[in-house]
Amino acid sequence: MTQNAQAQPEEAPVPGPATEAPASAGLSEHAAAITAAYAFEGARIHLGALVEGEEPVAAAPVNLALSMLNRHGLIAGATGTGKTKTLQVVAEQAAAAGTSVFVADMKGDLSGIAVPGEASEKLTARAAARGQEWVSRAGRTEFYSLGGQGTGVPIRTTVSDFGPVLMSKVLELNETQESSLGLIFHYADSHGLGLLDLKDLRALIQFLTSDEGKGELKGIGGISAATAGVILRSLTAFEASGADVFFGEPAFDTQHLLRTAEDGSGIISCLELPGVATRPQLFSTFMMWLLADLYQDLPEVGDADKPRLVFFFDEAHLLFQGASKAFLDQVIQTVRLIRSKGVGIFFITQTPKDVPGDVLAQLGNRIQHALRAYTPDDAKALKATASTFPSSEYDLVEVIPALGTGEAIVTVMSEDGAPTPVAVTAVRAPESSMNPAPAEAMQKIVDASALQAEYGEAVDRESAYEILARRDAEAAGAAAEEADAQAPSEQPAEKDAPARRSSAKDDKGLFDNPAVRSFLRSAGTVVGREITRSLFGTRRRRR
């Protein structure tokens, strides 16, 4: 009997081949050792079969313990070596075992996970050689898009929820400018001014640097006109890139990513991003907001039989491209801390050097497809990659470039927390389609989603922009009324009257201005409910 096509829900686990045949049954000493090392007691994901010589050994399965997915992982390899299909193999089995899955689909390659695969004699034979009984099936999938760009339920967030730290990163601000932006958010938070979209943020910056509003922040440092100008210019460029569609309401609740289907399997949330690939900073910042938002809301669970959610970041180098040290520190902290919340993170990229060293050190599960060494830099990267694996009988500098498509070097975390021996592995075939899903099939899934009714249409309610616009209108009206009332009483003899009136007006102060009073009344509706922020600057929601 061979490994079933997918890991089953915990209530009815299916034993893998490693537990069904004696390790010594016709296996070499090395194959028997690998079989024993990867024969985990709990639920597991079947990665494939050990390769000896040039052929897979079906009786020597290479598995990944389901409970160890929250030790994070790396799937790396050159273009065309099969790393995206390996992602698909792990993701569909994790979902079948009851773990929710989130995949960021940069190129549209992963949409096929929602469609059953097509059988063929070649595929069946390939699967059998890897100890796999291939069955055509699809994962329960929900498609998402950023701000409605593309096919999927729109994911949006408000500027307030996004927070000053991530906003500073995406606007490429320096430390001084980031500090000033933090003051702006603090003012909005404490005065109940909703920053829902980018025009709200722009309007508030303009108000706080105007003659009328610049005194508001004077007591806590204020904002220089030069700094405000830089922030506004960066904001304009950000808007011009199309980012404005990602900010607004209804704001997406990340708890939707933790749903399971009626049969107990995890739902695969597939974020379609082909139109965002040219804006890597937006992609990386938005994805880190998701992680930060989940981190603040999820309870501590420690070590569990299976994680609640596993993220797969395809083209992971886009997360770190041009990132500041402060932002990298946040990523490192997230990866370190979110494990105890029952969340696993897998990065999929070409070489391990695409991932910062401190992040790489947290990735306990490693699946390395072929790398090519065409240049001196390639050769250096190859040696560095080989050096990150545990010592083994393989010469990895020689083995890694020689791997065929669909083959990989594997080491994972065992159930006792130690790395398993390195195994050259022929990776199993996905059971869902290896081709992108047809557009009409994706649209049908989106139209049938209950979340489409909740998030499909953007909403623009009153927020900082509207409040400040009304303030300006009321100020203009008040000034006109004052001018009309004073015009008949003005006498030439009263040469000092204008000065007296100006002095009296100054004595009243900013807060006696009727427009400002209206502005503060609107803000006062939420006094006492100041927004508090998480470790990563995102908004803490009260549930």
Automatic annotation (TrEMBL):
Pfam families xref list: HerA_C
Superkingdom, natural source: Bacteria
InterPro entries in alphabetical order: HerA_C (IPR033186), P-loop_NTPase (IPR027417), T4SS_component (IPR051162)
Residue numbers spanned by region Disordered: 1-26, 476-513
Biased composition range(s): Low complexity: 476-491
Residue stretches making up the Helicase HerA-like C-terminal domain: 59-542
Annotated Basic and acidic residues bias: 492-510
Name of this protein: ATPase
Organism this protein belongs to: Brachybacterium phenoliresistens
